[in-house]
Design brief:
473 residues; alpha/beta; FAD/NAD(P)-binding domain; Enolase-like, domain 1; 3 domains; 5-stranded mixed barrel; 5-stranded parallel sheet; 12 helices; 30% helix
Length: 473
C-alpha cells in the first residue's frame, strides 16, 4: 500500500515540473515532487538553458567581443583563458537557481523527494530513494516532466574525455585550440559562436544545406555570414562516419571522405526524452524512438489522469513554453478555472552571436497559406543606439497583412534581439496593426525605435506596390 497520498505527484523538477507543482499547490493541492538528481531545476538550471547562456556572456566578456565594434577600442581576450575562468560564473548562476527553485517549492509547501521514479499503475509511483530503499506514493493526478538528455550517436567515443555532448561540455577540462562541433541546430550554433569568440578554431558540421531552417532566411543568412566572419568553418551537407582518438588529437572521417584532426569534439545531435525508466507500459503508455510522449491540447496523455509537459513531449522544448504547458495542464487536471491555454504566439530565442529571435508567422508560412503580406526592415546600423553600441549589422523585420496592416510576424537578429522581440510579441497577442508603432513614442536612443522605422519601411513598400506616392516617413 502507498505510504503517502497526494493530489498530485510531479516527476521532474525542471521548468515544467517546478511550475506545474507550484500551480497546483497555489490552489491548495497537496503536491509531491520527485527529482532523480541531487540539484533541482533539470537541464534548464544545471546543464542547458541557464548554463549555456551564462557561458555565452562569459565568452563575450573574456574576449571583449562586444567592444570590438566601438571606435578606438581594441580589446582581445587575455593570453590564456582557462576552463576555470570560463566556467566559474556558470557554477554561481547554477547554484543560485538551484536555491531559488528549492525556495519556491518550499514556499508552496511542495514535498520534495530525491530518487528515481517509476510507474506502478495510473495512480501509483514507486520511489527508489537516493539514500536507499523504496516506497510507494499515490495521487489523483500525475505529471511527467522528466525532461530530456543529449542524443549520443554510436559513432562517437563518448568514453574519451575529449568528446563531449551539450551536458558534459560543462565539465570541459581545458580550453582547446581546435574544436569540432557536430550539428548545426540551435545548441550547436550557440556553442560554436561562444567558443569562436574565445579564439578557438571551430569547425561546425551541418547535415543540411543551411543553418536553422526554421528561421527567416535573411536572418539565417546573416547569422551564417557573421559566424564565418568570427572564424567558424561551417561545412554543410556533412556528417561524421568514424572517429579515431589519437594520443594528441582526435581524427574524424567525414562522409565526403575528408578528415579533420581536432583537440575536442562537441556532439550536438538533438535530444531524447527521459522516459526509458518510467515503466510507461505498466499504465498503457508508450514513447517514440526519441522518448517523446504524445499528449492532447490539455497536455493529457492517453491515460486521463496522467499529464506530461516540457521536453518530454517534444517540440518546441523550450524552458518558457514548458512552464506554460505545465500550468495549463494542472488547470485542466484540477478544473481550476484559471489559465486555459498556452499563448497562441510563442517567442523563440537563439543565443548565438549575434542573437536571433522570432515570433509569429514567417514569409514562407504566409506564402504557403496564400496570405498577402508586406515586409518592413530597419537596420541596427541606421539606429542611434545601434551606432552607440557598435552594432555593425543586424536588423528587425516586421511582417504585416497587406490589406489591414495587422502585424503577423516579427524577426530580429542583433544585440538584445531576444529582448527586442517582446515588443512585437505583445503586439501580436493584442492583434495590433501598424498604427501601434507609428503612434508610439519610443525612448531615444533605443533599439525599440527599430519598430517604428521597420513599420515606416513596410508602409512605404505597400504604397509602391499600390502605385501610390510614397508617404513622407
Amino acid at each position: 500500500m502507498p505510504s503517502h497520498q497526494y493530489d498530485l505527484i510531479v516527476i521532474g523538477s525542471g521548468p515544467a515540473g517546478e511550475k506545474g507543482a507550484a500551480q497546483a499547490a497555489y490552489f491548495s493541492k497537496k503536491v509531491a515532487l520527485i527529482e532523480c538528481e541531487k540539484g533541482l531545476g533539470g537541464a534548464a538550471a544545471n546543464t542547458g538553458t541557464l548554463p549555456s547562456k551564462t557561458l555565452r556572456e562569459t565568452a563575450l566578456y573574456l574576449s571583449g567581443f562586444r567592444q570590438r565594434g566601438l571606435f578606438g577600442v581594441n580589446m582581445t581576450f587575455k593570453e590564456s583563458v582557462t576552463a576555470r575562468d570560463f566556467l566559474f560564473r556558470e557554477k554561481l548562476v547554477q547554484e543560485t537557481e538551484n536555491r531559488r527553485i528549492e525556495g519556491n517549492l518550499d514556499r508552496h509547501k511542495v514535498t520534495v523527494f530525491h530518487g528515481m521514479a517509476s510507474l506502478v499503475d495510473q495512480h501509483t509511483v514507486r520511489l527508489e530513494k537516493q539514500e536507499g530503499g523504496s516506497e510507494l506514493l499515490a495521487a489523483k493526478v500525475l505529471l511527467i516532466a522528466t525532461g530530456s538528455r543529449p542524443f549520443r550517436p554510436a559513432v562517437f567515443p563518448f568514453d574519451d574525455s575529449r568528446v563531449y555532448d551539450s551536458d558534459t561540455i560543462l565539465n570541459l577540462h581545458d580550453i582547446p585550440q581546435e574544436m569540432l562541433v557536430v550539428g548545426g541546430g540551435v545548441i550547436g550554433c550557440e556553442y560554436a559562436c561562444m567558443f569562436a569568440a574565445l579564439g578557438i578554431r571551430v569547425t561546425l558540421l551541418e547535415g543540411r544545406a543551411q543553418l536553422l531552417t526554421f528561421l527567416d532566411p535573411e536572418v539565417a543568412d546573416l547569422l551564417t555570414r557573421n559566424m564565418i566572419e568570427m572564424g567558424v568553418n561551417i561545412r554543410f551537407s556533412e556528417t561524421v562516419t568514424s572517429v579515431q582518438p589519437g594520443p594528441e588529437q582526435i581524427q574524424a572521417t567525414l562522409a565526403s571522405g575528408s578528415r579533420l584532426s581536432v583537440d575536442t569534439i562537441l556532439v550536438a545531435a538533438g535530444r531524447s526524452g527521459n522516459t526509458d525508466k518510467l515503466n510507461l507500459s505498466f499504465v498503457g503508455l508508450s514513447a517514440n524512438k526519441r522518448g517523446v510522449i504524445e499528449v492532447n491540447e490539455h497536455y493529457q496523455t492517453a491515460v486521463p489522469n496522467i499529464y506530461a509537459a516540457g521536453d518530454v513531449i517534444g517540440f518546441p522544448a523550450l524552458a518558457a513554453t514548458s512552464m506554460e504547458q505545465a500550468r495549463v495542464a494542472m488547470v485542466h487536471a484540477f478544473d481550476l478555472k484559471y489559465k486555459s491555454r498556452v499563448a497562441p504566439f510563442l517567442p523563440y530565442g537563439i543565443y548565438t552571436i549575434p542573437e536571433c529571435s522570432m515570433a509569429g508567422a514567417t514569409e514562407e508560412s504566409l506564402t504557403k497559406e496564400s496570405v498577402s503580406f508586406v515586409a518592413g526592415k530597419a537596420q541596427y546600423s541606421a539606429n542611434a543606439r545601434g551606432q552607440i553600441i557598435g552594432a555593425r549589422n543586424g536588423f528587425l523585420k516586421l511582417l504585416f497583412a497587406a490589406d489591414s496592416m495587422k502585424l503577423l510576424g516579427v524577426h530580429a537578429i542583433g544585440e538584445q534581439a531576444t529582448e527586442l522581440v517582446h515588443i512585437g510579441l505583445i503586439a501580436l497577442q493584442t492583434n495590433a496593426t501598424a498604427d501601434l508603432f507609428i503612434e508610439t513614442c519610443f525612448n531615444y536612443p533605443t533599439l525599440g525605435e527599430l519598430y517604428k522605422y521597420a513599420t515606416y519601411d513596410a508602409l512605404g513598400r505597400r504604397a509602391k506596390l499600390r502605385g501610390e506616392s510614397e508617404s513622407p516617413f
